[in-house]
Design a protein that fits this description.
alpha/beta, Alpha-Beta Plaits, Rossmann fold, seven-stranded mixed β-sheet
Length: 345
């Protein structure tokens, strides 16, 4: 038991100290994987946000600088010191519901690539960035010019294709390296920029007509349009009853894939609101949201869900506010007021 307590104390010190630095820098910790932490900075979803990128980079230097104080405390407790490996990259990610659909996870090629960089190309107590992140910083001279970029190893994607990596250093600042420590920490930093998932689109208008619970005139572009998406027919019926006294053009779908194809065929996205559930078959609400925004980022979205993950949803999905999320069962007045507010915004 003493050995287990020893290990728990050691890793809790690492996780707590790094997590505090991340959270104080507007970062979001997704999960810990053994002796690694996966986190990202939501504000960098805007690739022109200089302050967000400065804050994200400052966080990594803060983690490195504070390890000296932490290691001193560990030594006083006869515990071995930490040696960190920090890797960052920038790219598209996907969202997934995990467990009992009460938690959100991130995955995708960006995370996979950064993980490989971290495991094979990172240098202890250095900050290593991938080429995608390097190119984003290069497009921001006011941030880029504050740092030196030293070419690091190239990750071999194929025999003929390499992915460059760089050591990130502040100009005129030396980062002391500790070379005698065993690597006990591996941190991967990612940015959430939601990707589109390709789906079969063979079921087009004929299939939609069978699943569409109404037949709005798609040429009526001036009328406010609402698309309801929920895999429970009773829920859709309830929403339509609540909205029946309002002059909306309402279309309802129980199949999110068919709803997506319908939206793709629309010729105009003005005065359009999509009301969708999160937990659905084929496409969950996160995936549907991603693909709708890929069609046109101005399309308004309202999530209605029974899941108790509202705060996490706001922090993870860029551009989502509290006003765009409602919990089931809906209050009729709040629902109609929210719909009206989103349509005129």
């Amino acid at each position: 038991m003493e050995g287990l307590d020893y290990i728990r104390k050691y890793y809790s010190t690492f996780i707590n100290s790094v997590s505090d630095s991340i959270k104080s820098s507007s970062g979001k910790v997704i999960k810990n994987i053994g002796d690694c932490l996966l986190f990202y900075f939501p504000k960098t979803s805007d690739s022109n946000n200089l302050d967000a990128f400065r804050e994200a980079i400052d966080c990594e230097f803060k983690i490195l600088n504070e390890r000296y104080k932490i290691n001193k405390e560990l030594c006083n407790q006869n515990l071995p010191p930490f040696s960190y490996k920090i890797s960052l990259d920038y790219g598209l990610l996907d969202l997934a519901l995990v467990g009992d659909y009460s938690q959100v996870d991130l995955f995708g090629s960006t995370i996979n690539l950064c993980s490989k960089i971290n495991s094979s190309l990172s240098v202890p107590n250095e900050i290593i960035i991938g080429d995608n992140f390097y190119r984003v910083l290069k497009s921001l001279p006011l941030v880029f010019n504050d740092f030196d970029f030293v070419e690091n190893s190239v990750y071999k994607i194929t025999n003929s294709t390499g992915y460059p990596t760089y050591k990130l250093k502040r100009k005129n600042t030396l980062i002391q390296k500790s070379t005698n420590f065993n690597d006990k920490c591996s941190v991967s930093v990612k940015q959430l920029n939601l990707s589109s998932v390709t789906h079969d689109q063979d079921n087009r208008y004929s299939s939609r007509k069978e699943n569409d619970l109404s037949s709005p005139n798609k040429k009526n572009n001036n009328k406010q349009k609402i698309i309801l998406v929920d895999d429970e027919q009773d829920i859709l019926f309830t929403y339509r009853l609540i909205l029946e006294n309002y002059d909306y053009s309402i279309t309802s779908f129980t199949d999110p894939s068919i709803a997506l194809n319908y939206i793709k065929d629309l010729s105009d996205f003005n005065n359009l609101l999509v009301v969708l559930d999160i937990r659905m078959k084929n496409l969950n609400g996160f995936q549907l949201h991603q693909q709708i925004k890929a069609i046109d980022p101005t399309i308004k979205i309202l999530f209605i869900t029974a899941l108790d993950i509202l705060d996490e949803l706001i922090s993870i999905v860029p551009g989502i506010s509290q006003d765009q999320i409602m919990r089931k069962p809906v209050n009729n007045k709040i629902f109609t007021n929210t719909v009206e507010k989103l349509l005129i915004s």
